[in-house]
């Protein structure tokens, strides 16, 4: 039973869904599919689960980090049409790098909050096995990198700088990474992800994929210690304490409070605030710190009122630095593992983490969730949501 009153002027998440996350290589479970087909299936499933008339959807906004070739040409419009959904609904794709899927949710929420639309979808897709990361840029071109007043660095170099700045150790990073795999494995075995993941029938093989592919247990901590540090000789960052290259998609349906009441929908979470910030382009992955502060300031909430945190595990150093700044109970942070375990399909991860957070708040009966993501070259996104069916402490 909903315990918060529905306000006409608020924005609500009515439904959310994600695909399993597969390894983003030619031997990955989803590789034989096309990104447009994966997204089409996701959008179709979202509409089906919500029970809404698809003709009422006023926009589809999609995050894609490498928007070229198979992921170019406004992929959400093609995916919507391929799913057999109404031709009257427009769509657009965006690229805020790793924050793209979350930004898609933000733009959908902001369009609704402005009063210009009532129903929109924020979604994301990335198949890194089909369109390799970096396909759309010229970072290796020396002419492109000229003229900036900062060093144009690889994210891995920045993650090493952050580890040094916050005096993190290799053991801390590896232990956190192992935790991610162990928590994700526990969540899978307990069935926590079952309702949020749509099974995908893979084109060509007919095989049905139902679970995240990248989770590895038991964790081999001894092997972790032997891995090379590609970004710095004698450094700390390895393949084991960084996010995985992945394939996946996710979608979130957002509706105005007025329309929720008019259509008799069941809201699952309320958007409390959504922010984006710019940050130091060299220490580029520290953006979640000012983004979190801005989100908390706007809502007048304290970090200790946040019950569930989904901070993208681009690198373990990102999360551990954030935790040192906010001193939050670590058990609240990525309670079911993160991108180090299940992977990071760049444009989709923002919507995936939102889907995970909505479901975790419902599962635990907790109230507030915070999602934040670091972004290349110094940006970050943050969202705070409120569970519409949380259980007040007085009723526990």
UniProtKB/TrEMBL annotation:
Residues 11-256 form the Thiolase N-terminal domain. The active site is at 98 (acyl-thioester intermediate), 344 (proton acceptor), 374 (proton acceptor). Pfam families: Thiolase_C, Thiolase_N. Signal peptide: none annotated. GO terms for molecular function: acyltransferase activity, transferring groups other than amino-acyl groups. SUPFAM superfamilies: Thiolase-like. Belongs to the thiolase-like superfamily. Thiolase family. The keyword Plastid does not apply. InterPro entries: Thiolase, Thiolase-like, Thiolase_C, Thiolase_CS, Thiolase_N. Keywords: Acyltransferase, Transferase. Residues 266-386 form the Thiolase C-terminal domain. This is Uncharacterized protein. The keyword Transferase applies. CDD domains: thiolase (cd00751).
